[in-house]
C-alpha cells in the first residue's frame, strides 16, 4: 500500500534523537523529525555535507523541518568523518543508516517501503555510492539489529549541490588552487586512485551500478565548490543507462544555498516535495 502524501499538508512535528549506530568507534546519533498525525508516513534519510570532514546532522535542518511538516518522517544521521575515519567509512555509515531506517521506520510512524534519501555536497557523494551499489560488501558489512534481509536500496535519491565525481572535484580544486578542498579530499580518500574508484560518475562509466533510483539534483549556477559540468555529465550518463534523472538549476545561487532562508530555498523545497509526490504516483500507477 502506498502511503498518503500531500505536499501541501502542514503537520505539527516532534523532534527527537537516539543512537542509531554504536561500536568501538563511538556512538552516532540520528535526529528524527516526526509528523504528529495518522501515519504511516513516507520516510527519508538525510545525509549532510562538509567535505567528508566537517558539518553536522543539523546542516539541513531547514529542509528537514519543511519536509517533515508536509508529512514525511525525516531521519538526519551523523556519521564518521575524516581525517579520523577514511573511505569507505562514511559510505558504510550511510548504507547502515538506510538499513536502520527501513528496519525502524514503523516505530516512528514511517513506512519502511518508501525510504528515500537526500544527500547534500559530500553527503550526495556518499549517498549515491550507497544507492548505486547498495549491496557492495564494503558498504554493507555491518549488520543492523533485526535487519536481516533488509538492503540499502532507496526508492529515490535527491542530491543537493552534490560531489558526483570525487576525482573530478579534486582536479578542479587542484587546478583552481583551492587548498582547502584538495586537503579534505586527500584526508578522506588518501590518493587519486581511490578517488577514482569511489567516484559515483566512474561507477556509472564502469558499469558497476546495481541500482538506479529516480534522481533529482539541485544546484546553484554560482556554485564555486562543485563545477556544474560534474552534475551535467552525471545526468547524461544516468539517462543513457536507463535511469530517471532531473537536474534543476538555481540562477545565481552559491554552493549549499538551501541552508539559508529565501525564495530559492523555498523553491528547492517545493521541487523536492513535487519530486517525492511523483515517485509515489508512479509507484501507485
In terms of DSSP E residues, the strand content is 15-25%
Given helix and strand content, the structural type is alpha/beta
Note the run of SSEs as H and E: EEEHEHEHEHHHHEHEH
Strand order of the biggest β-sheet: 1-2-4-3-5-6-7-8
Oligomer: single chain
Radius of gyration: 17 Å
Q: Residue ranges: pLDDT <50 for 5 or more in a row?
A: none
Percentage of residues assigned to helices:
25-40%
Write the layout of secondary structure elements.
Blueprint: E1 13-23, E2 26-35, E3 41-47, H1 61-69, E4 73-77, H2 89-104, E5 110-120, H3 122-132, E6 157-160, H4 166-176, H5 179-189, H6 192-197, H7 200-206, E7 215-220, H8 228-240, E8 245-250, H9 263-284
Parallel strand pairs: 3-4, 3-5, 5-6, 6-7, 7-8
Antiparallel strand pairs: 1-2, 2-4
What does this structure look like?
- With 285 residues, the protein is an alpha/beta fold.
- The protein contains nine helices and eight strands.
- It has an eight-stranded mixed beta sheet with strand order 1-2-4-3-5-6-7-8, with helices on both faces.
- The longest helix is centred in the C-terminal third of the chain and has 22 residues, at 263-284.
- The radius of gyration is 17 Å and the shape is globular.
- The mean pLDDT is 97.
Amino acid at each position: 500500500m502506498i502511503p498518503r502524501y500531500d505536499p501541501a499538508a502542514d503537520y505539527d512535528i516532534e523532534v527527537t534523537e537516539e543512537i542509531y549506530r554504536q561500536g568501538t568507534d563511538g556512538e552516532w546519533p540520528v535526529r528524527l523529525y516526526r509528523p504528529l498525525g495518522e501515519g504511516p508516513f513516507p520516510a527519508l534519510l538525510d545525509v549532510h555535507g562538509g567535505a567528508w570532514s566537517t558539518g553536522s546532522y543539523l546542516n539541513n535542518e531547514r529542509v528537514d523541518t519543511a519536509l517533515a511538516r508536509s508529512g514525511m518522517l525525516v531521519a538526519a544521521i551523523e556519521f564518521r568523518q575524516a581525517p579520523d575515519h577514511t573511505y569507505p567509512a562514511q559510505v558504510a555509515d550511510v548504507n547502515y543508516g538506510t538499513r536502520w531506517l527501513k528496519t525502524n521506520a514503523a516505530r516512528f510512524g514511517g513506512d519502511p517501503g518508501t525510504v528515500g534519501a537526500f544527500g547534500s555536497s559530500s553527503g550526495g557523494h556518499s549517498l549515491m555510492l550507497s544507492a548505486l551499489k547498495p549491496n557492495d560488501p564494503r558498504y554493507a558489512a555491518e549488520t543492523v539489529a533485526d535487519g536481516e534481509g533488509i538492503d540499502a536500496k532507496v526508492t529515490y535519491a535527491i542530491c543537493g549541490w552534490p560531489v558526483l565525481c570525487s576525482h573530478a572535484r579534486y582536479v578542479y580544486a587542484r587546478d583552481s588552487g583551492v587548498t582547502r578542498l584538495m586537503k579534505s579530499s586527500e584526508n578522506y580518500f588518501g590518493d587519486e586512485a581511490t578517488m577514482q574508484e569511489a567516484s559515483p560518475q566512474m561507477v556509472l562509466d564502469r558499469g558497476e551500478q546495481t541500482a538506479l533510483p529516480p534522481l533529482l539534483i539541485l544546484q546553484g549556477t554560482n556554485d564555486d565548490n562543485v563545477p556544474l559540468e560534474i552534475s551535467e555529465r552525471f545526468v547524461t550518463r544516468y539517462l543513457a543507462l536507463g535511469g530517471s534523472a532531473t537536474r534543476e538549476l538555481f540562477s545565481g545561487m552559491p554552493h549549499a544555498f538551501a541552508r539559508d532562508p529565501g525564495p530559492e530555498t523555498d523553491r528547492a523545497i517545493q521541487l523536492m516535495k513535487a519530486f517525492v509526490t511523483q515517485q509515489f504516483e508512479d509507484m501507485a500507477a
